[in-house]
What we know:
5 strands, alpha/beta
Amino acid sequence: MERIPILRMGTRLLVTIQVDMHDQLAMTLQSDLAAAIAERATTGLLIDISALEIVDSFIGRMIANTAAIGRVLDVETVVVGMRPAVAITLVELGLELPGIHTALNVERGMMWLERTAAVA
């Protein structure tokens, strides 16, 4: 079964999606992330979608649901690397990503997570 690696950076998790997401892979990733957050002292989750050319409504909902799971487990989520076409598609589909902060790249996303952890 295909899986997306989840990297640990201190108390944060980093997921870089480098493959085209299909529904089953998205559900597996969501389950893997929930388990990784629960079993480790995690303070932040960074999801890099810079390699994704297309995000459909299912993948958008999966990202939003993953962030909601993170919030329940006291973890902040940042999505980075969103292409303009993906942002336009999400807006046109009427998808909102409540509770998700976005940043242009991994560096800015990590800086946001560090600032958030310092305030908490």
